[in-house]
Amino acid sequence: MNKYEIMFIVKPDLEETAIKKEADSLKKVLTNLEAKFVEEKAMGQRELAYEIKKYKNGYYFLFVVEASHEAVKEFDRLAGINENILRHLIIRKED
Q1: In what side-by-side order are the strands of the sheet with 85-93?
Q2: R_g (Cα) of the chain, nearest Å
Q3: What is the C-alpha separation between 3 and 1, in angstroms, rounded?
Q4: Whether the model pTM is above 0.85
Q5: Residue 31 half-sphere exposure, CB side, CA atoms within 13 Å?
Q6: How confident is the model at residue 94 (pLDDT cuts 50, 70, 90)?
Q7: How does pLDDT run across 48-92, given as a tens digit for each residue?
Q8: What count of other Cβ atoms lies within 10 Å of the Cβ of residue 57?
Q9: Is residue 5 packed enough to be buried (19+ CB in 10 Å), middle (13-18) or exposed (0-12)?
């Protein structure tokens, strides 16, 4: 298992419960594939460096996980097709 840092941005025009639901659903994808969470942070709403899909703000979330390649690949696939996720980034951390 490798260590990964995953950051994703949720659309700002959703209700607070819907934003939390999106983050929980992505977290569940990783936990179902036996990823171990080292750190989980809801960073709140922040201004984007540039407009993404006509949005100037977004809700940032950060997960640091120990996971298999398959778990991260599935997260990447689902985050890519989810319309409520503006951007996501997965970085493999070296120990």
Answers
A1: 36-52, 55-67, 2-10, 85-93
A2: 13
A3: 7
A4: yes
A5: 10
A6: confident
A7: 999 999 999 999 999 999 999 999 999 999 999 999 999 999 999
A8: 16
A9: middle
